[in-house]
Design the sequence.
């Protein structure tokens, strides 16, 4: 199972890839995946992981897997560094050459005093941003603490990554900056988690170093202070400090006798006596401090660090979990996975043909001698009444209408045939005018009529198709689009006898 | 139970395909001014989670209706046999291919489809339509007359009277300009044609409504994300010492503006994809509003807020922070915090109105010289971006899939968008303010998505009223 960091990084990468893909593709893809993992609807993070496994094509190993590996290695290195640092610190603090006993106060100050300060800093770093905003200067201090955290050692280790991984990761991180609510949280807890790994390892190393010196060398402990402090007071303090383990390990609580006889003054003059008890103390007695010191390091050093490590790890995992569920684009993925898919479009993309462009064609207007009488055919009652049409033709075309026939529309097929017969046998004028409504398309029935008429004409008469437009109730020139549909259709027939004439607008 | 099928039939070039494109939200439907653009039947199934609720079938137009009717009339014996005669016509003539269009358009009706007979209400009624209507009546299928006024509605009434004689239901439906509610009303009316069709059509209407809300929300998310990205955009680059500072600043500012424009365009592309309007060509260079550069003074004037409004909003933002101080002080500050906060907000508004992005050179001890373009602080900026996004969304969401002209966003479209309500403006400003300060961005983004979604829904609905 991939780690959460792997999922988050691979998710961010996949979502970025998806940004350049058409939404319709994503919809189809995710709907199908949603159907196959519908049982995970109530577990969003698992559903998202399942989705990622279905869609991800991020290379093997993926960037997320490589970054996770880097994360694991960096944590291991930090742990090793912590152990080494702790061991060295123990060797330094507990160094004893036989002259002066190891000062218990030094040990406590270094391993516990510093610990309390660092833990206070840690708690401050862990504070939520909302709370920090209310404390003046708190954000700056938190940034400072974060910048000196050993967790930043990861950044140095980052430089050891292969250039390609580094550049991909930096690219994702820079994008993440816009969404720093999500990625900022991961970064913050990532640093804290790394720092706590180091710190816990440091105390483990220090404890190990301490035990090693106790086992393999003879250490003498004493306590020393310039301040006025009596043995009773110190004993009281050590008793309080020992209270967590006193019921479990009673011999790890320093006795008053030990405290009283292990006080050490560095000045060596003066006779041994109650003023300088360590001088005449039993060397075995001076070594009895070690159970107390070891218990202090375990209870006040290692255990709090293990606890903070646990909390940091838990919060880091929670931040990763939050990041996975709130990364930019994730809500879209859930939407596509879980919502109903409504489709209204056709399944295929055939069945239509592109329209013919009107712009590339030119249709010359036929030239007709004026003053003649011509026959007219009104298709589907185009134009106005026959009487008015006669006057209009004379006024606008300069022709006198001879016989005016009707065809199409409410006329029957037989009536159409009779009209063709009548026109074919009559010899009037040099052209036959076919008047039609320009806004009605030239349907096959109309074209059949014209073809039939053309084939029946034995002489050289032209059939002039005259599409009429309208302006209110009056006849008007046709619109260019309407005229063009007739011109194109007639051109498709390819009969030289058929021509389309445009009515010119009135001057 | 069989799925309702509706065959959209009629005379050629009368808007059948436009009606199908609008109802099927499909911009792949070929719509042409040339007759005969549709040469074959094409089905548009409406599916919810794979389940087909109804099917629209686009058909070629009648080409030889009188001839076909004449053939049928010759064989007429009594009215009960009319559907059989139509069936006989199709089975006899399909192999002959002498009535290819009639055979294709009548086949779905013989298979049980309902009839949606489409006419153009902008041109006069003609006698040639009667044969078509008679044939359709002969099929005996439930039918509806649809008047689609392509352009004007001058002849709608005369058509209504003519269609009323052949169809029990006659409706007017402008395929190109109908709003979403009218489309749903029409679908509901289809369900009334036959009792068994009512339930699936009601489910389809409900699913389309939900889908519409989802589209508004998705669009709001894309716009909100782009706003967050644009408001927090910061570019930092190394700066070589030998390079002129002014030129470096100028180049970086140019890059900054390009990045902002790219972010805006990306959101727009996604919104168009959400509404499946990807094939519409968006005009961005010639028209006076969206074509203008994001930073042109005219755009600021139209979409942004006036200095007075900005000052007011500055006071609101500052006052809100001051108010928090008052609350923290338990009221002992006598609302001094609010007053000071307001004054600070006003001053900040005036100061920020002067520049778009601060570009500065940083001298960093380790990183060296860097040139940085800071996020835009101008208080008007997010309002301009949001205003433009609103206008774009309104145009896209109102546009039907039968519209094939360029998607232009002009001043007329802008006037269709009402001014933002004062309450929404204030809430939006609070969101912008949080994002700018990078505080609770997630929460602010969620608030913003909700606000934008509501505004988008209102804008779209306002377009239909």
Sequence:
């Amino acid at each position: 199972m991939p780690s959460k960091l792997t999922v988050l990084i691979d998710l961010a990468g996949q979502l970025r890839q998806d940004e350049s893909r058409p939404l319709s593709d994503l919809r189809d893809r995710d709907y199908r995946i949603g159907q196959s993992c519908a049982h995970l609807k109530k577990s969003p993070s698992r559903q998202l992981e399942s989705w990622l496994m279905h869609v991800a094509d991020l290379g093997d190993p993926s960037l997320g897997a490589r970054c996770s590996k880097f994360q694991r290695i960096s944590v291991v290195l930090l742990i090793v560094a912590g152990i080494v640092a702790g061991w060295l610190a123990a060797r330094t603090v507990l160094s004893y050459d036989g002259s002066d006993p190891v000062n218990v106060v030094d040990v406590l100050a270094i391993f516990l005093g510093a610990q309390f300060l660092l833990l206070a800093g840690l708690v401050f770093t862990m504070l939520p941003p909302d709370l920090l905003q209310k404390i003046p200067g708190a954000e700056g201090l938190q940034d400072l603490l974060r910048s000196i955290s050993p967790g930043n050692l990861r950044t140095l280790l980052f430089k050891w990554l292969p250039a390609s991984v580094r550049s991909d990761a930096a690219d994702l991180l820079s994008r993440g900056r816009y969404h720093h609510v999500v990625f900022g949280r991961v970064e913050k807890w990532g640093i804290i988690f790394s720092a706590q790994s180091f710190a816990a390892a440091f105390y483990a190393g220090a404890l190990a170093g301490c035990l090693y010196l106790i086992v393999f060398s003879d250490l003498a402990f004493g306590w020393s202070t310039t301040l006025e402090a009596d043995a009773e007071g110190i004993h009281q303090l050590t008793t309080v400090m020992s209270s967590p383990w006193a019921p479990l390990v009673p011999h790890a609580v320093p006795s008053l006798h030990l405290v009283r006889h292990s006080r050490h003054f560095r000045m060596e003059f003066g006779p041994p006596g109650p003023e300088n008890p360590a001088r005449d103390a039993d060397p075995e007695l001076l070594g009895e401090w070690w159970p107390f010191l070891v218990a202090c390091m375990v209870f006040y050093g290692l255990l709090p660090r293990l606890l903070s490590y646990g909390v940091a790890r838990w919060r880091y995992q929670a931040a990763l979990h939050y990041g996975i569920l709130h990364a930019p684009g994730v809500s879209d993925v859930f939407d596509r996975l879980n919502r109903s898919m409504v489709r209204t479009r056709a399944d295929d993309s055939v069945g239509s043909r592109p329209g013919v462009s009107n712009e590339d064609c030119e249709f010359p207007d036929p030239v007709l001698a004026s003053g003649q009488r011509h026959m007219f055919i009104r298709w589907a009652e185009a134009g106005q009444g026959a009487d008015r049409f006669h006057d209009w033709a004379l006024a606008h075309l300069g022709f006198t209408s001879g016989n005016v026939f009707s065809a199409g529309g409410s006329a029957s097929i037989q009536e159409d045939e009779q009209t063709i017969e009548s026109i074919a046998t009559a010899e009037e004028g040099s052209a036959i005018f076919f008047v039609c409504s320009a806004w009605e398309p030239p349907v096959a029935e109309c074209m059949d009529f014209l073809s039939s008429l053309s084939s029946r004409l034995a002489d050289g008469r032209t059939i002039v198709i005259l599409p009429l437009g309208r302006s209110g109730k009056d006849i008007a020139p046709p619109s260019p689009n309407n005229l063009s549909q007739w011109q194109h259709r007639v051109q498709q027939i390819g009969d030289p006898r058929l021509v389309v004439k445009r009515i010119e607008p009135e001057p | 139970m069989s799925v309702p099928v509706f065959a959209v039939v009629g005379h050629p070039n009368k808007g059948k395909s436009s009606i199908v494109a609008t109802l099927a939200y499909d911009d792949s439907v070929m719509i042409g001014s040339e007759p005969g653009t549709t040469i074959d039947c094409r089905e548009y199934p409406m599916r919810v989670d794979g389940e087909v609720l109804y099917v629209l079938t686009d058909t070629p137009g009648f080409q030889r209706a009188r001839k076909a009717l004449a053939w049928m009339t010759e064989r007429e014996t009594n009215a009960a046999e009319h559907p059989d005669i139509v069936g006989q016509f199709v089975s006899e003539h399909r192999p002959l291919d002498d009535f290819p269009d009639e055979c294709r358009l009548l086949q779905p009706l013989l298979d049980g489809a309902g009839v949606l007979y489409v006419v153009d209400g902008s041109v006069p009624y003609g006698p040639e339509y009667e044969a078509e209507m008679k044939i359709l009546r002969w099929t005996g299928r439930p039918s509806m007359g649809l008047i689609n006024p392509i352009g004007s509605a001058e002849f709608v009434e005369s058509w209504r009277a003519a269609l009323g004689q052949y169809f029990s239901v006659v409706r007017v439906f402008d395929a190109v300009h109908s709003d979403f509610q009218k489309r749903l009303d029409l679908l509901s009316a289809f369900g009334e044609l036959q009792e068994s069709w009512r339930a699936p059509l009601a489910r389809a209407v409900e699913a389309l409504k939900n889908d519409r809300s989802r589209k508004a929300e998705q669009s709001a998310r894309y716009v909100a994300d782009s706003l967050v990205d644009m408001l927090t955009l910061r570019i930092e680059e190394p700066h070589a010492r030998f390079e002129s500072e002014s030129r470096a600043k100028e180049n970086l500012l140019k890059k900054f503006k390009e990045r902002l424009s790219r972010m805006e365009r990306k959101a727009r592309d996604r919104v168009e994809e959400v509404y499946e309007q990807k094939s519409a060509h968006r005009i961005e260079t010639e028209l006076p509003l969206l074509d203008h550069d994001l930073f042109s003074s005219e755009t600021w004037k139209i979409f942004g807020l006036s200095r007075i409004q900005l000052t007011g909003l500055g006071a609101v933002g500052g006052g809100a922070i001051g108010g928090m101080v008052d609350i923290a002080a338990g009221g002992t500050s006598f609302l001094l915090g609010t007053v000071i906060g307001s004054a600070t907000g006003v001053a900040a508004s005036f100061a920020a109105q002067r520049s778009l992005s601060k570009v500065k050179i940083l001298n960093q001890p380790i990183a060296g010289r860097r040139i940085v373009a800071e996020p835009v602080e101008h208080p008007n900026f997010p309002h301009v971006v949001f205003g433009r996004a609103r206008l774009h969304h309104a145009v896209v969401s109102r546009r039907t899939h039968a519209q094939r002209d360029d998607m232009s966003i002009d001043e007329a479209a802008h006037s269709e968008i009402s001014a933002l309500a004062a309450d929404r403006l204030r809430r939006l400003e609070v969101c912008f303010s949080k994002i700018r300060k990078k505080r609770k961005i997630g929460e602010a983004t969620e608030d913003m998505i909700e606000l934008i979604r509501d505004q988008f829904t209102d804008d779209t609905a306002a377009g239909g009223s």
Observations:
- The beta strands of chain B are 5-10, 42-48, 51-58, 114-120, 143-148, 169-172, 235-238, 359-364, 368-373.
- Residues 285-294, 317-354 of chain B have pLDDT under 50 and may be disordered.
- The first helix of chain B runs from residue 16 to 24.
- The radius of gyration of chain B is 30 Å.
